[in-house]
Amino acid sequence: MTDFGHDGDDGSLERARCYNSRFPRPVPMMSAPRPAFEAKLCPPADLAHRVTALPRPLVFTNGCFDVLHRGHVTYLAQARALGAALVVALNTDASVRRLGKGADRPVNPLEDRAAVVAALGCVDLVTWFDEDTPLTCILATRPDILAKGGDWSVERIVGASEVLGWGGSVHSIAFEHDRSTTALLTRIRDAAAQ
Fold first, then answer.
1. Averaged pLDDT for residues 75-88
2. Quick one: which of 97, 127, 130, 124 has its CA closest to 114?
């Protein structure tokens, strides 16, 4: 999957009608311009080229980012603060399923997860990988800084030896807000079952 597509065959929004007390008759809704964050979406094949336009030092991180929560956005902002630009690589849906997070994961498909992450101000580029690890993306990006959440020790972070080998640094960022998508989904399911 390399194209996120849009509503309508020509990329325009479907026409709709709105009712307003000032306008007694239906008024056609106007198309809005595409959101600027969509320019941050980067197919893996374009990654090596696209990162050349980003300022350095470049930070790279990866993850599922399935149901975005406070822990995620805090971590991403902290990762971005380590450098001048942040690239986030997302696991594809198939890659998430292979992680064993549950048969119903991801909750949100890649296209939605990528759009939500790209909309964050601290994120400069969003790409994805179908492999079990993001190593191919790391090698294409050649980040100056590799970051993961505090549940990863530096020696377990995929790409650490490569990034250290070319003179970069690797950071395991301690969680400031103890949140978990899996725990959140469990709470929602438990509440629905009552």
1. 97
2. 127
